[in-house]
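2024-03-11 09:14:02 INFO receiving multi-entity request
2024-03-11 09:14:02 INFO entity count = two
2024-03-11 09:14:03 INFO echoing inputs for audit
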Amino acid sequence: DARVTQTPRHKVTEMGQEVTMRCQPILGHNTVFWYRQTMMQGLELLAYFRNRAPLDDSGMPKDRFSAEMPDATLATLKIQPSEPRDSAVYFCASGLLPGGTNYGYTFGSGTRLTVV
Amino acid sequence: QQPVQSPQAVILREGEDAVINCSSSKALYSVHWYRQKHGEAPVFLMILLKGGEQKGHEKISASFNEKKQQSSLYLTASQLSYSGTYFCGTEGLAGGTSYGKLTFGQGTILTVHP
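2024-03-11 09:21:47 INFO inference complete, emitting structure
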């Protein structure tokens, strides 16, 4: 089965440090999302791309977060500087649009980030 | 805006049925349903594109009422494996950069006991 690969799976870092999360979408998928999941806020959309172009990053704190797709096989999410409130699970998801009635988005396993 | 799911939690015994509702304040183009087990990623169940559409997946089916901007997920004869958190994701009609953009509800925790 095709998979979305995220690295690292777990990250513990100190407040103020830079954090980079990586995502390899499924080959051929043209749409990539970054979501953040916390108990309080649920699944929040941070940013998404179509054909590598950023379409919407309104859910991201602009002063510290940045998202890029340097090529079709790699999406990155950076936090600099990190803060304890950034602790969450960050999911990458990819999909093919238009996808028809049988195609949803495939999520990666997530990066569990803890900022101490 | 985030869709609203109800109920927040459901507890069932094996073989019982459940309905999870998803309601949006804006006109919708599509509704997705996902299931997430503890410590895992959300997994796609189905997508509904048309008003009044109903789809099925094993004993799990869903409907989409475009006029009411609502979708319901039906789980019949529940099994232990159905336990998890169910999320609806909605895509608005705005098009353009909103095309494909999914906003998720808060989730419904489903627990099935033997």
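2024-03-11 09:21:48 INFO post-check: Residues 31 and 61 of chain A are 21 Å apart (CA to CA).
2024-03-11 09:21:48 INFO post-check: Chain A touches chain B through 24 residues (CB under 8 Å).
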